[in-house]
Each structure stands twice: as structure tokens, then as C-alpha cells.
Design a protein that fits this description.
60s Ribosomal Protein L30, Chain: A, Nucleotidyltransferase, domain 5, 4-stranded antiparallel β-sheet, alpha+beta, 16 strands, single chain, 3 domains
């Protein structure tokens, strides 16, 4: 999984002097085009395609050899592999998701030799949300981080809790009321059992409050803005009531317990992935509904508005295959050569995917890529491009 340090190293690649090889490879073992191979591992289709591509680009033989050796002898268990290489460096990133603006499905590889081509990877880092998953088991609690369809357990989460505290917390489940009304009812009693219940409930309150504060620190450190609670319904709702004001993440869903405390990260991912997918697809549809109400659409209209700084959210298809006419000195793009010639006499005919990062930065727009059904709707109803505008 790409953590903060890996992301910093990706961004530092932009400082590498050209020429740099930027290679994106579809390595998904579940894809039939990828998984088919002969008994010779070197005959994997993506290795052959990468070899032909690097040769056609004129990449120096020494760099070709290092990159192909890595592809041939290090089989990735990932969907996409991104490789960046130069005379004195080789950096590899295995990703659990597809990337926007690169079309690997039809060719398995996409490569550039020149300036570092980081846009697909940087777009993906901005596009995918980080999720935290808290598994509230009766024996112990665990925290997982999910990003780009990959998962890792946060090993130091809740480690400050002693075995004795876990035992006491487990006992409190059957001894203490699980809501404020129950707490008030217990507080009014005067028997020895009532006093015990009050002490136990006060301890339970502190326990949950401390764990919520501890969780908030872990989420803030990792930049996690969305939280999934997994466990018995009464436990997840009870814990959620203790999340403090200003908590760094939004609880987006609650899921039932896997049923056994020793569940592995892979099983957790299988359980949360459909929920994450549904949440993100719903948000994309809501965005298009908002565009319909208050936005603009169509390539010509959106690009015209972008060039005067009106667009603050630029909505694009995941598989971006649109042409634009570009004036590089003026950083101006238009949907037609006639519109571009009003700015420069000989505009360049360019694929828009090579320009989106530069144009978004130049004109202060954030980019949102749409996938699946929302991408099809963007194409069918909105002409393949849309935007929300400042005025």
C-alpha cells in the first residue's frame, strides 16, 4: 500500500531530469489477457508488450534490461504496476487499482520516454479515498487502512489497552446498560449493585472515550477521512456515540462482524470492498445530478469556461480519449482548431489526457474522474465532459 513516504517519493519524481522512462503496466492476475502465459514466464503478454514498447521508444538498452528484468522475475500481485527509471534509478509501485487517463485494457502497457509522466499516478492518489475500518471484536479491537483496493492493518492501534482492560470491557457488555437512558436509570439507584453498575458504566464510558481519541489520532496521522465500523450492531452504534466533535473522519457505513476474532486483512477487504464501491458510485451519480442542476457540460462549453477560470470542478471520464487544440505558450486549449487559432496561429493537436494536469493547475480547477455507470452517463448525457463553475 502507498503510505505517506511512498507518496512523497512519487511526487519527488517530478524533479528528476529528463529523459525518464514512465511505464504503466496492467498486471492484474485476474485479467484473462494478463494471466494467459506459456511455460516460459518471460512470455507473459505484458512483458512482451513492454519489451516492444521500450524498443520502439528508443529507451537505452541498459535501462530496458533493468526494467524488463524486474517485470520478468518479480511477478506483481497487483492490478497495475508503475515503473519509473533513468540512468541511476528504478522505482516501482504496485497498485491495487486501475489508473485514470491511461488505457491499459487494450494494450496492457503505456509508456513515455522524456519528462516524467506522473499524471495517471498522481490523479489516482487524489481520486481514491483512504478508508479506516475498525473491527470491534469482543476480545480486542483492530484498525485497518484501505486505499486503492489494498489493505494493511495498523498494528499499533489500541495496543495501549492491557489484557485486563479488554477482559473488563468484555464483562461490562453484559453488566452495563448501553445507552445514556440506562446510565441515568442506574445512577438513581442506591443499592450496592447500583453503585457497582455506576462505577462499571463510568469506567466503560472512559474506555470508549479514550479509544475514540486514540482512533482520531491514528486517522489524522494517515489522512483517513472515511470510517467503516465493523462488529455487532449495538457495539458499533455505541462506539460511534463517543466519537468527539471535530473527529477527522466520517462514519460512512456499519457492517456486521465477520464472526471470528482472527479474521485476516484479506477477508476484511473482501467484506468492505462492495460497500466502498457502492459509496463511491453513489457519490458520482450525485455529482452528475448536481451538474444537471447547476453546472455546464459539453467539451466546447467546458473548455471555454475553464480558459477564463470559471470552472472549479472539472468532471472527466476515467478513460479520457478526447482531442484538444493547444497553444503551449499561452497554455490555452480549445475543442476546435478555429477557437484555438484566435489565440495562436498554429495550435497543436493534442490528446487532452496529456494536458489535463497542466490546465487544471493553471486555471485553478480540481478534477473528478468518473467510472462505471457514471462514466457512461457522462458520455451519454453530458457530452463526455462537465464542470461546476464559480459564476
Amino acid at each position: 500500500m502507498l503510505g505517506k513516504e511512498a507518496i512523497r517519493s512519487v511526487r519527488r519524481l517530478a524533479e528528476r531530469p529528463a529523459p525518464v522512462l514512465s511505464l504503466y503496466v496492467l498486471t492484474n492476475p485476474a485479467d484473462p489477457d494478463v494471466s494467459q502465459h506459456t511455460f516460459d514466464f518471460k512470455q507473459k503478454p505484458y512483458v512482451i508488450r513492454a519489451k516492444d514498447t521500450l524498443k520502439a521508444l528508443g529507451v537505452p538498452a541498459a535501462i530496458q534490461k533493468r526494467v524488463l528484468d524486474r517485470l520478468e522475475h518479480d511477478a506483481p500481485q497487483a492490478v497495475t504496476r508503475a515503473i519509473f527509471a533513468g540512468d541511476d534509478f528504478l522505482e516501482v509501485y504496485d497498485l491495487g487499482a486501475e489508473l485514470p487517463v491511461v488505457d491499459l485494457a487494450s494494450g496492457l502497457v503505456e509508456a513515455r520516454w522524456g519528462e516524467p509522466y506522473l499524471a495517471p499516478l498522481l490523479f489516482a492518489l487524489d481520486e481514491y479515498e483512504r478508508y479506516g475500518v475498525v473491527y470491534l471484536d469482543r476480545e480486542r479491537w483492530r484498525l485497518f487502512e484501505v486505499f486503492m483496493n489494498q489493505i494493511a492493518e495498523v498494528e499499533d492501534a489500541f495496543r495501549a489497552v492491557s489484557p485486563e482492560e479488554w477482559r473488563r470491557m468484555s464483562e461490562s457488555r453484559t453488566s452495563a446498560p448501553r445507552n445514556l437512558a440506562g446510565y441515568a436509570a442506574a445512577a438513581r439507584g442506591g443499592t450496592a449493585k447500583d453503585r457497582f453498575d455506576r462505577r462499571l458504566l463510568a469506567w466503560t464510558h472512559r474506555f470508549y472515550k479514550d479509544r475514540a481519541a486514540e482512533l482520531a489520532r491514528h486517522l489524522a496521522e494517515r489522512g483517513i477521512a472515511r470510517l467503516i465500523l465493523m462488529g455487532p450492531e449495538e457495539d458499533t452504534r455505541y462506539f460511534e456515540s463517543f466519537l468527539p466533535k471535530g473527529f477527522p473522519a466520517q462514519v460512512v457505513t456499519r457492517l456486521p462482524s465477520p464472526g471470528h476474532p482472527r479474521v485476516g486483512p484479506g477477508e476484511v477487504l473482501l467484506r468492505v470492498r462492495p460497500a466502498i464501491e457502492a459509496i463511491e458510485r453513489q457519490e458520482e451519480q450525485r455529482l452528475l445530478d448536481r451538474v444537471r442542476e447547476e453546472g455546464i457540460w459539453g467539451a466546447e462549453r467546458v473548455l471555454d469556461a475553464l480558459m477564463v477560470g470559471r470552472v472549479y470542478l472539472w468532471v472527466l471520464p476515467w478513460r479520457l480519449d478526447l482531442e484538444a487544440f493547444y497553444c503551449p505558450d499561452e497554455r490555452f486549449a480549445a475543442a476546435s482548431p478555429e477557437a484555438a487559432r484566435a489565440v495562436c496561429p498554429e495550435p497543436q493537436r493534442r490528446n487532452l489526457k496529456d494536458l489535463v494536469a497542466e490546465l487544471a493547475e493553471a486555471y485553478g480547477a480540481r478534477i473528478e474522474f468518473l467510472r462505471g455507470e457514471a462514466e457512461r452517463r457522462l458520455q451519454d448525457e453530458f457530452g463526455g465532459m462537465a464542470g461546476l463553475v464559480r459564476w
